[in-house]
Design brief:
heterodimer; A: 381 residues; 71% helix; B: alpha/beta; 7-stranded mixed sheet
Chain lengths: 381, 547
């Protein structure tokens, strides 16, 4: 009803009937004028609020240049309402789709995760909503059929309702897709959480189960379950719930398998222990070995020192003897010869012993022993 | 202090306020006159106002692409019409302007009617009078008085008109009224009441010397309206009848169709503006000059229309040319008609006798010439009655008054009973008993001397020797010598200095002669500005009918 080009000068509250006259004493231009627009608008608003309170409807009998055709007894508004409702549902589903479909990983924060309860709630509400919408469409259709109108109008209404139905179906499809994903994921989860494959009462199994048979069954049932999931998610869901109750055969079988597994486990444990002990021993021996090697190294060092010292001593003595011999050759030759031969034999026996000890230890010695090389050099001399 | 300018500004502001777009101007009967006097149709058309409708006309079409500017008087009928209009609006937006103060209850009534909220603005623009000349306004009211007291509705209307003049001119005046007239006292009181009630409106910037409102009564000077006039505007009004600046020439023999109704407006007509107050002789000369000018222009245009540039120049100048030719033909027609009437009715002689009667003091002479004239067959009834009235007014109490004889003469001539009765009623109206001041016999020494000297000197122009009473009154007022005993102040305060802005209101109507006086006074005394107004503007016929 409002004319958009009109300037609004109203600022006071609508209920202020006792608005005092605001008179401009002097306006900006040179004429003397008084603007009573505010009072007028205040009165208009007062009247309007009063009318609204009383409930008088304003008769809009204005003749417009373009006459607005009134909607036919509410078909259009109702249809529009249904459409808006379906749109609301669609928006809601799309909005929560991500949360709904998410796998619920442990990493995600709690706020975005949807609990199962919430998902169930969404499912329920969506179903009720869709049911009511289809109900409304049906009602509208009946109404449209009952009303006596021209053929064109009937056709138009029928087409409108068909379109609404298609729209509703599209939204339902959205919903069912979401649901299917969710159900499939749940089924997979459930399947994986079992230790043995699911059984259907039709499939018979002997209690003594061989791993091979189990395997085949295992292969079969996943296929079956997959096809079941594809065909009828709802019913499988229910069935898988039912199969929680196991038959006694299966129970026994499961027990036996349990026992076997336990024994295997125990044996494994024992073996492991043994190996452990052996490993411990080996490590101990290793330690002793290392110790011994170190000891021998120190001994060799000592011996080497001694040898070096002895060699030095012998050299010195030889020098002295040689000097004395040279002195005593002038005196007598026998005494020195004998002493010289004694010294020689002494030195030879000494080096011999040294060589023996050397050969004895040659197995343990490496090549780089300068002291012994020195002795070797002495021997060559 | 220019009343035409004030009204024109109001109308311009009204139109501007509504913004661009096609507009329609909705008026009532009175505001139509108000607007038509200040604005020509072509001027308004330029401002995109393409349609002019009356609010009370029922056969208007729906035009939702137009904005409606309503300029109405705040009367009950107008409010009723407006309510009906707002209930079923024919236009897209309404800008409502009332020409005077409107009551709150009426605004509420309008607000209730405005269901579709088509009203954008409601304002009060105080243009509730007809601005004839810049210093002359009128309210176009007939039958203001009933006997010697106010017709109640007329009193209200006069008060409203007068207050709107004051607001338009932005004056909050001191009021002086004529003691001898009860009507003026009542009007003064009611104006004062309004000023006090709406003191916020009248809260103008105070000048050093406050303005003055002087309320006079026509009955004090009944002679002036009876006289024949010889200045252009006054003469036209007297002989042809100037109604809202329009002359109805339809009864003139041999008139062309587009001159049947002629607009004489000083705003748009330069010649008229220059010759408003010139007397007949001067007008003749000026018209002749105008014709010569026009003739000079005319053949020149028609001669060299050979080249394209010439043609272009001609077409460019054609509107000017057309305008000039229109003006010339108009004035020529009017003046021609005037002179025809003058010769037909022997107005020269009549006027001479009139002036003699009103200004001179020679009874026997006057009587003789009057009788002589009454014998003449060409004298019209109206003039005869007029002369007798003048005689009656002048020599009412004269010892050798021959009034009954004259009355007999009138009946012999075949003057209707009604007209004869008018003489009597006129005497009642403006007779000596009633007059506050002595109209013709001077009272104080100064005036006596003046008259004596005048008698000696002779007058420059026999036909214009009469000065209306208002001249003396205003003269005294300007010099600060207006007697308080005759013209008391309303209220305790009084002007200490000489007044500078004066608004004079004549109850019963003003005349163009008085307007001329005021104009001359305005010119001669530069520090003073006077605006004259009346409940109507008289000519003899109207005056006579009035009684």
């Amino acid at each position: 009803m409002e004319n958009p080009q009109r300037r609004r000068t109203m600022t006071s509250s609508p209920g202020d009937v006792s608005l005092c006259l605001q008179r401009a004493l002097r306006c900006s231009c040179t004429v003397m004028a008084v603007d009573i627009t505010l009072l007028f608008k205040a009165s208009v608003k007062t009247v309007k609020t009063r009318n609204k309170a009383i409930g008088i409807s304003v008769d809009s009998t204005k003749d417009e240049i373009f006459k607005r055709i009134r909607p036919k007894s509410g078909f259009s508004p109702k249809a529009k309402e249904v459409i808006s409702n379906i749109t609301k549902l669609k928006d809601f589903l799309l909005q929560h789709r991500k949360d709904y479909v998410s796998a619920g990983s442990l990493i995600s924060s709690d706020s975005t995760r949807m609990t199962e309860n919430e998902r169930d709630q969404i499912d329920q509400d969506a179903q009720i909503f869709m049911r009511t919408c289809s109900e409304a469409i049906r009602q509208l259709r009946n109404e449209a059929e009952k009303q006596v109108t021209s053929a064109q109008v009937k056709e138009h209404r029928g087409a409108v309702l068909d379109l609404i139905e298609m729209y509703l179906r599209g939204v339902c499809k959205l919903y069912s897709e979401q649901r299917a994903i969710r159900v499939k994921r749940m089924v997979d989860k459930k399947r994986l959480s079992r230790l043995a494959p699911e059984h259907r009462s039709k499939v018979e199994k002997p209690p003594a189960v061989e791993p091979k048979e189990e395997k085949t069954v295992r292969e079969e049932s996943p296929e079956k379950s997959m096809s079941e999931v594809l065909d009828n998610p709802v019913s499988l869901w229910e069935e898988s719930r039912v199969e929680d109750e196991l038959s006694p055969e299966e129970i026994q079988m499961f027990e036996q398998e349990n026992q076997r597994l336990v024994s295997e486990m125990n044996s494994l444990v024992d073996e492991v222990r043994q190996i452990e002990g052996k490993v411990v021993e080996i490590s101990r021996l290793q330690e002793i070995f290392a110790e011994k090697v170190l000891q021998q190294e120190t001994e060799i060092d000592g011996i080497h020192q001694l040898v070096v010292g002895a060699t030095e001593n012998v050299k010195e003595r030889q020098m002295r003897i040689y000097e004395r011999q040279s002195k005593t050759t002038r005196a007598s030759g026998y005494g020195s010869c004998s002493s010289w031969s004694c010294a020689l034999s002494l030195s030879f026996s000494w080096t011999g012993t040294t060589a023996n000890t050397t050969s004895q230890h040659g197995l343990y010695l490496t090549g780089n022993r300068p002291g012994l090389a020195h002795i070797g050099y002495l021997r060559e001399r | 202090m220019n009343v035409t300018l004030a009204v024109k500004q109001y109308v311009s502001k009204m139109i501007e306020n509504s913004g661009p777009g096609m507009k329609v101007l909705l008026m009532d009967k009175e505001t139509t006159s108000i607007v038509s006097v200040v604005y020509t149709q072509s001027e308004i058309l330029q401002k995109e106002v393409y349609l002019f409708e009356r609010i009370d006309s029922q056969s208007r079409d729906n035009m939702k692409h137009l904005k409606a500017i309503c300029f109405l008087r705040p009367t009950k009928e107008n409010v009723e019409h407006l309510i009906q209009e707002l209930r079923r609006p024919k236009y897209s937006v309404y800008f409502i302007y009332f020409s005077n103060v409107i009551s709150k209850s009426e605004i509420k009534a309008l607000a209730e009617a405005d269901e579709q909220e088509v009203v954008a603005e409601v304002q009060e623009f105080y243009g509730d009078f007809i601005a004839v000349n810049p210093h002359l306004f009128s309210l176009n009211l007939q039958g203001v008085a009933r006997g010697r007291s106010w017709e109640p509705s007329m009193l209200a209307r006069c008060t409203q008109g007068l207050t709107s003049v004051l607001l338009a001119l932005k004056k909050c005046p001191m009021i002086r009224y004529q003691l001898s007239s009860d009507m003026s006292k009542r009007l003064a009181e009611s104006v004062k009441q309004i000023i006090t009630k709406e003191y916020e409106l009248f809260d103008f910037r105070k000048t050093e010397v406050p303005p003055l409102l002087l309320i006079l009564d026509r009955s004090d000077d009944a002679i002036t309206p009876l006289l024949n006039q010889w200045t252009y505007q006054a003469m036209v009004h007297e002989l042809l009848g100037l109604n809202n600046n329009r002359i109805d020439l339809s009864r003139v023999p041999g008139i062309s169709k587009d001159l049947k109704e002629v607009v004489l407006s000083a705003e748009n007509d330069e010649f008229y503006a220059n010759n408003l107050y010139l007397n007949f002789g001067e007008i003749g000369t000026n018209i002749k000059n105008l014709m010569e000018d026009f003739q000079k222009k005319k053949p020149k245009e028609q001669q060299k229309l050979e080249s394209i540039t010439d043609m272009k120049a001609f077409v460019d100048n054609y509107p000017q040319f057309k305008k000039m030719s229109g003006t010339v033909s108009k004035h020529v027609t009017v003046v021609g008609e005037l002179s025809r009437l003058v010769s037909e009715r022997q107005l020269m002689e009549v006027s001479e006798v009139e002036q003699e009667l009103s200004c001179q003091n020679d009874h026997s002479n006057a009587q003789q010439s009057l009788r002589r004239l009454l014998q003449s067959p060409r004298l019209s009834e109206l003039d005869a009655v007029r002369l007798v009235m003048l005689y009656a007014l002048r020599y009412e109490r004269h010892s050798s008054s021959v009034l009954p004889g004259l009355m007999e003469e009138l009946s012999r001539r075949g003057v209707s009973e009604r007209h004869r009765g008018m003489v009597k009623s006129m005497l009642e109206y403006g007779g000596k008993r009633v007059r506050g001041s002595d109209l013709v016999t001077p009272t104080d020494a100064v005036a006596k001397t003046k008259q004596f000297f005048k008698g000696l000197k002779g007058v420059e122009n026999v036909y214009t020797q009469h000065q209306p009473l208002i001249h003396d009154t205003l003269d005294q007022l300007i010099k600060g010598r207006l007697k308080d005993s005759q013209f008391p102040y309303l209220g305790a305060s009084s002007l200490r200095d000489r007044p500078q802005d004066i608004v004079v209101f004549l109850i019963g109507g003003a005349t163009y002669e008085e307007a001329l006086t005021v104009y001359n006074l305005n010119r001669s005394t530069p520090g003073v500005r006077i605006v004259l107004g009346g409940s109507s503007i008289h000519n003899t016929r109207r005056n006579v009918m009035c009684w």
